[in-house]
What we know:
globular, two-stranded antiparallel ribbon, 5 helices, nine-stranded mixed beta sheet, Rossmann fold, Trehalose utilization, alpha/beta, Class_I_gatase-like, 13 strands
Amino acid sequence: MDVCLIAGGKYHDIDFARLELLKLLAEHEAVRVTVLNDYSDGAAIRAADMLITYTCDIVPDADGVAALRDFLGQGRRWFALHGTNSILHFLEGGKVDCPDCAPEFMEMLGSQFQAHPPIGRFKVKVADKTHGLTQGLRDFFVEDEQYLCRFHPGNHALLTTRFAGVTPEFVHDTWPEQDHMVLYTRPSHGGEVLYLTLGHCRGRFDLRPLADFYPFVERGAWSHPVYYELLRRGIRWGLPAGSSSS
Length: 246
């Protein structure tokens, strides 16, 4: 089975995330992986049986969007992680804007990142305990970026988190108390998307060119066994029936 893994972008330890995802994919002996940095190889995307993306501030051009649409149009599944839905513009005043400049791409994904509070510990609740992706899971706490997004209609919430407060680093900086989806499925263009917002990671040299050196190594949800369980379930969900060997 051919899996296309797109791992690339800014401000994250993409090498770490790529390696961890490849290790998990290696648990399935029938899987062969094509690794890309962005959406420019439309042929590889169209040929894949499953798509996995871990990116930040990487947006496909019109040809990339067409390749994604064709991939989903074959009834296939896309497992999107963390910053896949992010567009980040750093303004002169220091705030981060997340403009609505890729509407078709974000509609495919079902959400667009808008802000997060400082990395901290927060609760994740199981919204659907009957779904195969969450069956048997309990509510849990995790230390990560708590993603606050604009969501499109049609998503099916599996995990949620609740937030109220301010995010002063972002243009969208005031948030009333409400639930935000952490894990959801979405029918999209004839296929299906599974989105998991958890998974921040950053090393000491990953903020370039904003900063030459970052004083911390951050692993976020990657430090929690439940995150690896969610990743394994997501990979099994995305592989064609009968191809999983783990």
